[in-house]
Amino acid sequence: MRLIWFIVWILLFRPTPRGMFLWRNILLKIFGAKLGIHVHIHGSVKIWAPWNLRIGNYVGVGEGANFYSMDLITIKDYAVISQGTHLCCGSHDYNASNFQLFAKPIVIEKRVWLCADSFVGPGVTIAEGSVIGARGVVSKSISDAWSVWVGVPVKRVGSRKKEQVLA
Fold first, then answer.
1. Separation between Cα atoms, residue 76 and residue 29, nearest integer Å
2. HSE of 112, CA atoms in CB hemisphere, 13 A
3. Model-level pTM?
4. Which of 23, 94, 110, 146 is the most exposed place for a label (fewest CB within 10 A)?
5. Cβ(106)–Cβ(123) under 8 Å?
């Protein structure tokens, strides 16, 4: 199935013009992705396994994002995944003699903004309304809703005003 998806991605997904979101969404749904309404995924986005993708309503995914969806990636309503962001569900157990591969799901809650080139690792959940600054690395779940995080690894630097965002 991955080989077939790769061929479809190369021939029918990736080369499409910028505004062909509906066409790309149809291709993803054929391969098992669950997508809400007004989902905008650019053609240069790499998706390892569309059948492990759940995206809510009014979500934008920028150019060059990478979804290494070895496990389920859930992105809830009104989230923004900026260009170059990497959501990585898989890694290796560095303590295992065979360097065993493992996978854990990622959950991006409502109204989260993952800024350019950010990285989210396996098993991470990011709380509602949070912002991860450009090139931020998230290796542990963030439970503080409406908070702002930056750095490598990310550290909390502030909060968002929920009432302004929802106005």
1. 17
2. 28
3. 0.95
4. 94
5. yes
